[in-house]
From TrEMBL:
This is DUF2169 domain-containing protein. Residues 22-310 form the DUF2169 domain. InterPro entries: DUF2169 (IPR018683). Pfam families: DUF2169.
Amino acid sequence: MLQLQNVTPFAAERAVQFDRQGGHLWVVVVKATYDLHPDGTLSLSKQQEPVKTHPEYFGEQGHSTLKRDAEIVFAHPGTAIMVNGSACAPEGEPLRELDVGISVGSMHRVLKVFGARHWEAGFFGLHMTEPELFSRWPLRYEFAYGGMSRQQEEGFSDNPVGMGFFVDRDDARDGKLPHIEDPRYLIKSWKDRPAPAGMNAIPAMWPARARFGGTTDEQWITTRAPLVPDDFDVAFFNAASPGMSTNVPLRGGERVVLVNLTPSAKLAFRLPRVHFNLLTTMGGRTVRQHTQLDRVIIEPDDSRLVMVWRSVLACGRDARRVQVTHVDTKKDLHTGRFYGV
């Protein structure tokens, strides 16, 4: 029972989770890893990344950017899009600031990246220095607005791993400004408190996600745990940075454009269109399961594209009725391809 037969080249995993009422849900996740080539073509990666059951960070948890969130969830709103990469100056020519952007279908996001700057004391108060030259800069939340005050007395909860947060003028003097900003809300004063700007995933404990987690008080502990709180919102499972997700799930085939995220300045490709055939044998009958594309992860520095699909089947009060799920792909009628490439 509770078996998974995966005959695709992709990674797959399964789990039993609870719905809001305590019923069992059979969750199957399929994850595809593609190599992204300089001409915009894609090919199946020889090494398929496994499904992540726990969050993974670029460095130490609580002190670095989230690289992968847990990927087995019972619900997800739309499709989350994440970019782990770097700002790349066109032709490698050093410059002081650079706009980087991504579009996936109707979703568009632009960030402004600066060279190193700091607050300098002058006759009329603090002013920011001219950005230093750079040709490449990592796009991570360590370089977005946030962080701890230099006295380590107070932090910016929306991005505790960032930089540029100061509690007073003395704290800000000679302090570094963030490298990554939203061009619509550029910092003008050390007192400014902009929302952190990024394209990476954000952790569940940051306010942008935690506010959807519901009320986990003593009453919840005694009356509902381990079920989600009554006021839980599935938006909690969306790990994308603000502005980096779609309301309606992507289907594959959408055009992707990366601007100044690769050495070629602009790279365009289309998301692979994959049609899955998930057949689950449960209680002596066979059920066909629908899949949804939950996450698209683009990693230009590593020439990698990752896509994560999810399927959920309600099992009542006993998931042990599930015997096996067979995971396969169907040929796309337009391209004749089984795996999208």
